[in-house]
Amino acid sequence: MSSQDIPEENLPAAQRGTHAPKPADDKNPFADPGLPPHEHRIQDIDERAAKRSERTVALLFTVSMLATIGFIASFVAIPHDKSIYVFPLGHINAMNLALGLTLGVALFTIGAGAVHWARTLMSDEEVADERHPIEASPEVRAKVHADFKQGAKESVIGRRKLIRNTMLGALTLVPLSGVVLLRDLGPLPGTKLRHTLWNKGKLLVNMNTNEPMRPSDIAVGSLTFAKPEGLDEHDHGFQNEIAKAALMLIRLEPEAIKDKRELEWSHEGIVAYSKICTHVGCPISLYEQQTHHALCPCHQSTFDLADGARVIFGPAGHALPQLRIGVNDEGYLEALSDFEEPVGPAFWERG
Amino acid sequence: MSTAANEAPRSRGKAPAGERVADWADGRLGIYSLAKANMRKIFPDHWSFMLGEICLYSFIIIILTGVYLTLFFHPSMNEVEYHGSYVPMQGQLMSEAYKSTLDISFDVRGGLLIRQIHHWAAIIFLAGMFVHMMRVFFTGAFRKPREINWLFGFLLFVLGMFTGFTGYSLPDDLLSGTGVRFTQGAILSVPIVGTYISMFLFGGEFPGTDFVARFYSIHILLLPGIMLGLVVGHLILVFYHKHTQFAGPGKTNKNVVGMPLLPVYMAKAGGFFFLVFGVIAAIAGIASVNPIWSIGPYRPDQVSTGAQPDWYMGFAEGLVRAMPGWEINFWGHTLVLGVFVPLVIFGLFLAIIALYPFIESWVTGDKREHHILDRPRNAPTRTAFGVAWVTAYMIMLIGGGNDIVATHFHLSINAVTWFVRIGFFAGPVIAFVITKRICLGLQRRDKEKVLHGRESGIIKRLPHGEFIEVHEPLSQEQLHTLTAHEQYKSAEIGPTVDENGVQRKVKRTDKLRAKLSKSYYGPESQIPKPTVEEYKEITSGHGHH
Amino acid sequence: MKKLSARRRHPLAALVVLLLALACTGGLYAAFAPADKAQADETAQSLAIDEGKKLYAVGCASCHGTGGQGTTDGPSLVGVGAAAVDFQVGTGRMPAQQPGPQVPRKKVIYSQAEIDQLAAYVASLGAGPAIPSEEKYGPEGADSAKGGELFRNNCAQCHNFTGKGGALTHGKYAPTLEDVDPKHIYEAMQTGPQNMPSFPDTTLSEQNKKDIIAYLDAVNSDDTVNPGGLSLGGLGPVSEGLFGWIFGLGGCIAVAVWVAARTAKAKKS
C-alpha cells in the first residue's frame, strides 16, 4: 500500500516557502511579513549597561573560582564522618553537603556567566539560514544507481550464483559459533526448580534463634520464620538454598482451618507455608493474624493462609506451596517430605 | 550572512600560533570544510528545544561520575563480613559489591556525592528523555525527514531504562535485589525458553554468584557503548536536518531562524551544560538517593514493604501489579499469563509510540519534508492520542506505587489497584475525548481572534447604552502565525467503479486508512481555519477596523 | 424570653448546645475521674486491681464485656496480659474511637498510673505477658547490626526498611515506628496488637527484641544521621522519582527557560 493512491487534492497546497513576496500579498492579510526588524538591547546602545553586564559575568566567573577553592578546602578540612544538623535537611553528613553545594555553585556560575555573556553582550540578531532538501537531486540519484549497477555487474555476483549462495551460507552459519559459545553461561534447568533442601526428617530451625522448635513454641497469632537444619548463612550456596527453602510458620485454631489438605499437613494447627511468592518470588510474609491473610509487599498478591493459601487478590496465579510437617521422637517439629510442588514463580515446565 | 562585523574583534586577540595549529589540522583532517558548514550553523531559541540538551548533559555527567565509581566498586558477589565505619551494619554478611558501595558512601571522601550525582542524573536523564520525546511528539517534529532520529531517540529511552535498571541492581542491596528477583520471575514466565534464559542469565539458580558481574559489564560497557553511538548519530542528524522551528513571521519551511552556533549558541549550550551539572550537583549535596545502608544487603528471603523500582520502571511495575493472576496449565506445562501478559503489554505499549510517525504518515500520505512545528491544538487527533498514551502511562505509574498511594492518602490498596485496573482502559478514552475537545475549542478561539481581534478587556458603552468589549485587531505577524498551519482533507476511498464500469476491489487497508483519515481530518476533527475572504468580509463590515 | 425562643431556631443553636454538652461532659469527667497518682503508686496490688476494675467498667466494658470475656464489638481480654493493655492504652489506641479497618494511634487519655491499674486488672483475668522492665528494652548489651538483620527478616516486610510503615490489605496498614516508646515496641512484638502477628520469646528471643529496638534507635530516631541529605520520607524510589522530576528536571527546565528567553530590548524613546 503506497500513498501514491492518495489524490493530490487531499494534500494541502504546496507550502508557502519562498521569501519572494507573492503578487497578491497586499491583498492577503495572512501573508508572511518576513523577519521583524532587529531591535537593540540596552547593552547595544548604552556602554554603561554593557560594562555592567561585563562586570556581572566576571563576578560570576570569580564566584566559581571561589567555590572551587571552597570545594577543595571542604575536602581537606572537614572530617569525612562529621554530621551536622541543618534545617530543614536534618542530621546530615557535613562533607557531602559542603562538597555538593560548592561544586554546584562552581559549575552553575560558570554556566550562568557564559549564558549572561551570550544574552547581553553577544549579538542577538536573528539570522535566517536556508534549508536544502535532504534527498539528493535526480542527477545524483541517477548517478549513484548507475554506479551501483556497474559495481554489481563487475563483481559478477549476479552471474556466478554458486559464489553468491555459498557466501550467504557461510555468513549465515558463522554467527552460530558465537551462539554456541554462550552455552556455558549457565547449567540446564533440569529439575533444579522442583527441589528444595527440605526432606523427610529435616528439623525446622528458627531463623532468629537458630534453634529447633517444639509445637509449644508456636503460639496462635504468632509468626515464625524457619529454615532447614544444617543450613547456615556462612555456607556457600546459602542464598540459592534459602531462596527456595524459606518457610513461614503460623498457628491457627484447628477448627479455623477451612482446607482439608491444609489441616492434614498441619500439626496441632501449626501450618508451614513457603515464604516465596508464587507470582515472581518476593518473600511474602505480611501476615495479618486476625484475617489470616498474607500479603506480598511487591505486587500485593494476597493469600488466605486458613484456606490452603489460595490467592484471594492480586497477580499470583496459584496458592503458596505447603510443607507437610510433624514432630520427631524428641518432640521437635520436622518436615515429613519436600514440598510436593515447585516453590516460587511459575515457569513453563511447572505443569 | 552578516558575520564580518562579528569576526573582526574575535580574531583580533588570536595569536598567529592558533591559526598555524588550525592550518596544520586542516591539512590532515580537512576541518575547514567541516567548520564552514557548521561554525555558523543556526539554532532557533526556544526553551523546549533545550530538553534534549538536558538529556545529553545528564548523560555526560552519568558517564563522568560512572567512570569515577568504577574505580572503587567491586562487582563481586563473594560474601564478606562488614567492618567499615557504618555501625548498624557491623559484622553483617554481605556481598563485596554491597560492601564496596558502603565504602564509597562512607569511607571515600566525596564518594557519596559522586554516587548521588550519578543516581540523580540517571533519574533526571530518563525524565528529561520522556519530556523531550513528548515535546517532539506533540509538535509533530517526528515527521519526515526526522523519523529515523525519532527512532534513535526512542531506542535511547528504552536502553536508558535498562541501563538504569542494571545499574540500580549493582549494589546488591535488598531493594534492588528484590527488583532483580522480579525480573527473574518475569523471565521464568516466558513460554518454552523462560527457564533456560533464567539459568543462563544468572549462571544457574537465582540469585547465584554471577549476576552482579554480568550486569556490571552490561551496565558500564555494552549498553552505554550502544547509547553513546546512538547519541552521536542523534546529534549528527540534528545538525544535518537543522532544527525545526515554530511558525512565525519570517520563518518558513525552507529556512531556519535563530542564532549562530559560534558564538551565541556555543556559549548558551556550553553554559547550559554547566548549569545542568550545577543543579544536579547541588541536589546531590542536599537530597539523598538510594541510601543502601539503611536498605541492607540482599537476601532472597528478606523484603521490605514499599518495594519499588526507579520511576522509569514504575510503569512496568504497575502493569504487573494490576494484572489479575491468570495461569493456564495444560499437558504438563504452565502458561503464566499473570506475568507474561504485562511483559508483552509493556513491549507493545512502547512500540506503539515508537511506530506512531509511520502510522501518521501512512494515514496522511504526505511525503514532503516538515520543518515547521505544529502547535498541538492544530493536530487534535495526534495530540489526543498522545495525551491518552501519557494518561495510561501515568495511571500505571500510580499502579506501580499503589502501596505508597494507599498509605499516604489513607486508601485501601485493593481500591487503588481496582482504580488502576479500570483506569488503564477508561482513562485513555476519557483523556482522548477531552483533549480533542479542548484542541477544537482552542482552534475556535484562534479563529475568533483572527477574525475579530484580541479581547482587550476594555468595556465601552455605546451611545445607545449597549456595553461592548473593545477588540483589538491583530498585527500581520500575529495573523500570519495563527493561520500558518496547514489543514489536511480526509482521504476518500474514491469511486469503487472505474470509468469502464468495472467494479474495483477495495482493499481492507484502504478502508482502514479512509476511516483513520476521517477521524484525523474529518469535519469533527478540525475547525476550518479562517480564509482571507472571511476575514475581509468581517473587517470591511466593521469598517473602523 | 421571646428573644431566646427566636434564637433557639437559629441554625447554629444545635452546635452551641453540642459544644456546651461536650464541655459539661469533659468537666464532669475531669472532676470525677480518679487521678490521685501518689495514692495509686502506694496502693497494694489488690487495690490496683480494684481501681483498674472501676476504670475498666467505665472505659472498656461496653466493648470487651463486663468481665473481659469479649463481645461482638471487641475481643476477649482473658490471657492477653498486662503488656497488651499497656501497649493499647499507652499508645492511645484504646479506648477505640470509631469503627474502621484499623484502630489508629492517638492521644493517650489515661495517666500511666491508671494504665497500670487497668493492666493489673486485665492481668488478673488470666495469665499473659507482663509489662517489660526497662533493662529488657534498654540499650545495654544490644547489637544494632544483628537487630538490623532481625528487623529485615521479621519486621521490614510490613514496616519498611527503617520502620516508616507500609500498606496492608483493605485500608489496613503497618504504622510508622517513629517516636514510638521502646517499651511499646517491645510490647507490640510480644503481644501482636490488632493484625500484627505476635513474636513471643520462643520465636524472637528477649535478646533479639532488644537488638531490634537498638537498631530502630539507630536508624529511626530524631538523631538518626541521613548522610546523603534530605531523606525524602525514607520511602525509596517513589519519593525519589517525584523529587527528581519536580526539583531535578523542573530546576533544569526553569534554567532552560532563562537561557532561551529573549533579552529585554531597549525601550523605544
Number of helices of chain C: 13
Could you give the order of strands across the largest sheet of chain B? 1-5
- Unreliable stretches of chain B (pLDDT < 50, length at least 5) are 1-11
> Could you name the CATH homologous superfamily of the largest domain in chain C?
Cytochrome c-like domain
Oligomer: heterotrimer
- The pLDDT mean of chain B sits at 91
Task: Report how far the terminal alpha carbons of chain C are from each other.
Answer: 76 Å
Helix content of chain B: 55-70%
- SS content category of chain C: mainly alpha
Number of domains of chain B: 3
Order of helices and strands of chain B: HHHEHEEHHHHHHEEHHHEEHEHHHEEHHH
- How much β-strand is present in the residues of chain B? 5-15%
For the termini of chain B, the CA-CA separation is 39 Å
Highest CATH level, the class of the largest domain in chain B: Mainly Alpha
What value does the average pLDDT of chain C take?
Answer: 84
What does the secondary structure layout of this molecule look like, with pairings?
The complex is a heterotrimer of chains A (351), B (545) and C (269).
Chain A: H1 42-45, H2 47-77, E1 83-86, E2 90-93, H3 94-120, E3 127-130, H4 138-154, H5 161-173, H6 175-181, E4 204-206, E5 223-228, H7 238-245, E6 247-251, H8 260-265, E7 270-274, E8 286-288, E9 293-295, E10 302-304, E11 310-313, E12 322-323, E13 325-327, E14 333-335
Helix pairs in contact in A: 2-3
Chain B: H1 4-12, H2 16-29, H3 31-38, E1 42-43, H4 51-70, E2 79-81, E3 93-95, H5 96-106, H6 111-138, H7 147-169, H8 174-188, H9 194-202, H10 211-241, E4 245-246, E5 255-260, H11 261-286, H12 292-295, H13 311-322, E6 328-330, E7 333-335, H14 337-364, E8 372-373, H15 380-400, H16 402-408, H17 413-452, E9 454-461, E10 467-472, H18 476-483, H19 508-521, H20 532-542
Helix pairs in contact in B: 4-6, 4-11, 5-6, 6-7, 6-11, 7-10, 7-14, 8-9, 13-14, 13-15, 15-17
Chain C: H1 2-8, H2 13-32, H3 37-42, H4 45-59, H5 61-64, H6 81-90, H7 112-125, H8 134-137, H9 144-154, H10 156-159, E1 166-167, E2 173-174, H11 182-191, H12 206-219, H13 237-260
Helix pairs in contact in C: 4-7, 6-7, 6-11, 9-12, 11-12
